[in-house]
Amino acid sequence: YPSEVLMQKITEDNQIPVHLHVSVSLQYVAGLKGRALVEFFHSNIAEVENEELRHLMWSSVLFYKTPSVEVMACVLLSTKAIYFLLDDSFIHADEHQSDFWNKENSDCENSSFHLSCCFVLKLNDLQSVNVGLFDQYFRITGHSADHIVTCLTRDSYNTHTFIQQLMAVLSLLARTPSPEPVDKDFYSEFGSKNTGKMENYELIHSSRVKFIYPNEEEIGDLAFLVAEKMDGLTNLPSLNILLYVLAFQVNHFEGSAQNTSSLQPKTLILTSSDLFLFDEDYISYPLPEFAKEPPKRDKYQLADGRRIRDLDRVLMGYQTYPQALTFVFDDVQNQDLMQNLTLDHFGE
Asked: What average pLDDT is seen over the chain?
């Protein structure tokens, strides 16, 4: 252990997304290759001597206790736990985290020693995994609010690969078997007798961890919400959501010293007639079992919306993935001016 194939795969995956900035300590981790990376895991991160590193992924993460702070993390999956090696700037990003993170090592800040904090979620504490729409993100849920993490991969391939690796590792866990299920028909298995509403599709793993996938109703609910935001300009049956993708909106600041840009996480939704940007809550929904009250904000909050017919041009950047797109719209005060003129001119 480990095999050459596994070491090569982990080395290939150990690349920070180019559009995201990380601290010096995580840059050091990203520079490790092959056996050096495995040795770093065993000497600095692993909690048990005989655990094996199975998968590595770089992803933005959100914590249930701090839903507004998205932070870059190196996610390491072993045969015992999931480790989130976090950017050390996260500790100082929110004043309310003093009870959540241990700050006893803060005196190392001014030295040449770079510190990262590592959040550990043991596989035995794992209860469910919620996969987001179109595999753009997934949420890992443990037994308390401290053990809920969302990985915003913004990439269906990375999500799919991690879920497959997680299922494989969970299969190695020795847990007491679940009682034999009683045979149920289709309607009692997937439907709720009280509401008649189809539940989300659940796959219960042999380790008793639930993998929950969205069903068609989530897309229907999203289409209804989008139609509401359009002020009834279109009829709901003809509204089709063509694209749902987690992206970043680039806010450009022209400073005196240097031009800088910040990336604001947004959910982009394209319909046959409009382009929308939403602020989405990726961590609070669906509600965990221990939640006593609903979240303070809705799952989707409209940030911007424009009609496709007002789109003048699309500018494409020359860089490789991730691609930068600029949408230029015509700003006409009275959007239906031409239509009204036509009616007045030709109508009686």
From this structure: 81
Give the CATH number of domain 4-174+199-212; options: 2.30.29.30, 1.10.10.10, 2.30.40.10, 1.20.120.350.
2.30.29.30
Which H, E and C letters describe the chain, residue by residue?
A: CCCHHHHHHHHHHCCCCCCCCCCHHHHHHHCCCHHHHHHHHHHHHCCCCCCCEEEEEEEEEEECCEEEEEEEEEEEEECCEEEEEECHHHHHCCHHHCCCCCCCCHHHCCCCCCCCEEEEEEHHHCCEEEECHHHCCEEEECCCHHHEEEEECCCHHHHHHHHHHHHHHHCCCCCCCCCCCCCCCHHHHHECCCCCCECCEEEECCCCCEEEECCHHHHHHHHHHHHHHCCCCCCHHHCCEEEEEEEEEEEEEECCCCEEEEEEEEEEEEECCEEEEEEECCCCCCCCCCCCCCCCCCCEEEEEEEEHHHEEEEEECCCCCCCCEEEEECCCCCCCHHHHHHHHHHCC
Which tokens in the block code for residue 86? 């976090």
Could you read off the pLDDT of 33-58 as tens digits, one per residue? 999 999 999 999 998 888 999 999 99
Amino acid found at 39: E
**pLDDT per residue as tens digits for the range 12-30:** 999 998 877 888 889 999 9
The answer to whether 285 and 297 have CB atoms below 8 angstroms apart is no
The pLDDT value recorded for residue 196 is 40
Q: Which residue spans of the chain are classified as CATH 2.30.29.30?
A: 4-174+199-212
Q: How sure is the predictor about 344, in pLDDT bands with cuts at 50, 70 and 90?
A: low
What is the β-pairing status of strands 210-213 and 128-131?
A: parallel
pLDDT of residue 43: 92
CATH architecture of 216-329: Roll (2.30)
